[in-house]
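If you are new to this repository, start here. Below is one unmodified record pulled from the training split, so you can see the exact layout before writing a loader.
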Amino acid sequence: MPKPPPGFEWDEAKAAANWRKHGVSFAAVDDFDFSTALELEGSDHETEEDRTTLLGKLGRETCVLVFTRRAGRLRVISLRRAAAKERRLYIEAKGY
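And here is the target side for that same chain:
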């Protein structure tokens, strides 16, 4: 598996599982467009740590990125292509 770009980290087993399930490498987070991303409210998972869910562009794809902050780094939890409903939400919010 590729090494995390500067400022990011992840669990290698989780990264491999994400690749198998979603076909998206955690290493692609380096190309995620944080500047135009939308932060989504709520979470499907109960956890003790705060997680952030962003809907944004990864190249031409609209993707969902879930991460948490640990020791000044972003720890990637999940990165996947957005579902149709999520893509519509992004388009509507951005006024495209």
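Two things worth knowing about this chain: DSSP finds two helices and five strands in the chain. The chain has a mean pLDDT of 91.
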